[in-house]
Sequence to fold (316 residues):
Amino acid sequence: MNAPTNVLQPPWDELSRQREGATFGIWVFLASELLFFGSLLLLYTAYRVANPDAFIAAGRETDLWYGTVNTAVLMTSSLTMAVAAQAAEADMRRLTIWCLGATMALGLMFLAFKGFEYAEDIEKSLVPGTTFALKEPAAQIFFALYWIMTAIHAIHLSIGLGLVGRLAIFGALRHVQLRENPQVEVTALYWHLVDVIWIILYPLIYLMGRS
Amino acid sequence: MSAEAFAMWRRNGLVWLALLVLLGLTFGAAHLSLGGFNVVIGLAIAGIKGALVVVIFMGLGRSASLIRLAAAAGVFWLTILFALTLTDVMASSHLGSARPQQTVR
Fold:
């Protein structure tokens, strides 16, 4: 069995400084991610202000159940991710690996539901273009934003799955030491942000025109 | 389960429960006929849920001030982006197009 790679990496002399650097770095990255998704949300807001009725009519066509179940799935994955990160700090290796595995399973479940939802959307001709189902032109703008925002979110989630899976597998094989490893903290923070983005998208995509 | 693990699940599980309750609330509120307030309630609840994840799960509540500053900077620039762009969007919808107007000679 391979010995775990040392957690301390150059240029750092102390693990505490390395951890501070890693945490600060990921937060700066997450702030830029917030601006990235924020610009899409701004586009959504501007078009919605200009076309309120078409947006509500289009929003009604999304599948509320897939959206709601997926929100619950993703929030649950944040719970297991939070426990994984805290267990890694407390040197509870088994619990960390189990929780990383659960986070992966929930992330995959989210993507599977999203896939079924996309198939249903395609079936209902909700892809912008000449065969689009709704007659209001601005409804196509809503669905263009729907596809772009949810697809970019799914790409982020897939990257998160890779990061979590890497830690779970290498951690279980003892290739990576999980205790006090800044990679666990950084992965957890990234995962939570992807969850926060979905929490904000949920009312804007799924909760319109339901009353 | 050790006492430490139990405490960990309890602490984080309470936040998770709060998130699920809020999801139920926002789901229910969307079915009430409140006009323009539907979107306000939806976004307010999303804001509370997001804040719970950021402050507790992401640990911003117990982070060093440098970390809080990095997070606040993101929100700050986002606010500027929204404020300046929406000023134009809102003004255009009240005062007419923001595109250059034909001058009368």
